[in-house]
Write a structure and sequence with these properties.
2 copies of one chain form a homodimer.
Chain A: E1 4-11, E2 15-17, H1 31-44, H2 47-53, H3 62-73, E3 74-80, H4 81-91, E4 100-104, E5 112-113, E6 119-123, H5 127-137, E7 142-145, H6 149-157, E8 163-169, E9 171-172, E10 177-178, E11 190-201, E12 206-217
Parallel strand pairs in A: 1-7, 1-8, 3-4, 3-7, 4-6
Antiparallel strand pairs in A: 2-10, 5-6, 8-12, 11-12
């Protein structure tokens, strides 16, 4: 059954890149790029990613296996316009997706077909529509939300995400672009609850896959003093 | 050999409590408390914590084992004044620490001795002094930095922390008090690097223990195109 999934590499303090580039100088010299490169280094070093990019070598370890599995599981992708635009040149004639990609955007554009099975369809009627179009062509595989963070938050906010896999990189950037920003529209004393369903560890990154259970009110307990914590008290 | 360690329970989005209580109404009714209770619930439900508080029952699972281990490893504690003041009444005559506690504060106060081996010594000449005083009486066990977040950031910023164990609770609060705030004094393109040395998983919380390696400059790689990524390229 098709699930809607997302992957994101983040620092220990929740950033997926350094502070947003303000347009001064080139992006590659920015603190945003320096943070982004650090957070995604484990991907770049993996043989599975390199193979999809046409590069040789790379590590064939537990981290690389996660990347390979992620590519295999996806039957279609949903992506933000910033990421699609930023990738258009570096991904070249044969992008690594090898599946239909639906780009959420306000600017209409004709479908862009690339070698190896990748196509980019520009969806102007919202993220829910993009997810539905991706689901229709995923062939029973997963719909993978590919980022960036703003799109992923939209998908979470709309209650469309089934599973989220975080790749937690052991570095603290201090400042930067946060995956979980304050725009999730949570009410006071409301949280989004999840359940960890798989943890894979390596010296370079901790991979935690979560099932998203949904919004729940935050309730108090009696801090263990009485019988108010169901199932945990011995009378 | 004595290590300086810290433990912190945080939400998936890095908060250890809800948004700071502004003093309106009672703390227990605040969003800060609602978030704090959610994040620390796994501790409250553990038999090891309940035993130290004089409460009966509780779960005796992998999470409780982590709490027991944490209490056992600590020979002395360092704590912020807010946490010490907030705990003074609820901890009662026999606080759960059973070891000397050094409280970092600007306000001098006489040593407070409690039953069961716990004492509170108020240190007015800074966090480094508190850590040194704790180390001197830890008897070869660890010095545990007990929070809150502001104190823990001071200790990290001063380069005094050897190990950090994060207990990542599968909930997203959206807003609140963050462990990793922007006041770590990191330079542009500088990060604090860590190495995960133990991961313990449960359905309720993921425990990751990190060794803190220190500050490092963020450097770019060639994204796999050439020979610039040492050890990963096949010529």
């Amino acid at each position: 059954m098709t699930k809607v999934t997302a992957q994101m590499s983040i620092s220990l303090d929740g950033h997926y890149a350094g502070p947003r580039h303000d347009g001064t100088g080139s992006w590659i010299d920015s603190a945003e790029a320096a943070g982004f490169y650090r957070i995604t280094r484990w991907v770049i070093d993996g043989a599975a990613w390199r193979g999809r990019q046409g590069f040789q070598g790379g590590k064939d370890d537990v981290d690389a296996a996660i990347i390979g599995e992620t590519f295999e599981a996806a039957g279609a992708y949903v992506m933000g316009r910033n990421m699609a635009d930023g990738g258009e040149v570096p991904w070249g004639d044969e992008p690594p997706f090898r599946a239909p990609v639906f780009v959420v955007t306000h600017r209409p554009r004709e479908v862009l077909r690339r070698k190896g099975g990748t196509s980019f369809t520009y969806v102007t009627d919202g993220v829910a529509s993009a997810v539905e179009q991706a689901r229709a062509v995923a062939g029973g595989k997963d719909v993978a939300i590919s980022g960036g963070g703003t799109l992923l938050r939209q998908v979470i906010k709309a209650g469309l995400l089934d599973e989220l896999e975080l790749h937690i990189v052991p570095t603290v950037l201090g400042t930067g672009m946060r995956l979980f920003d304050a725009d999730l529209d949570l009410a006071v004393k409301e949280a989004i609850e999840l359940t960890p369903i798989r943890v894979v560890q390596s010296p370079r990154v901790t991979h935690i896959r979560y099932r998203i259970d949904g919004r729940e009110p935050l309730v108090l307990d009696d801090r263990g003093r009485g019988s108010g914590t169901p199932g945990t008290d011995t009378p």
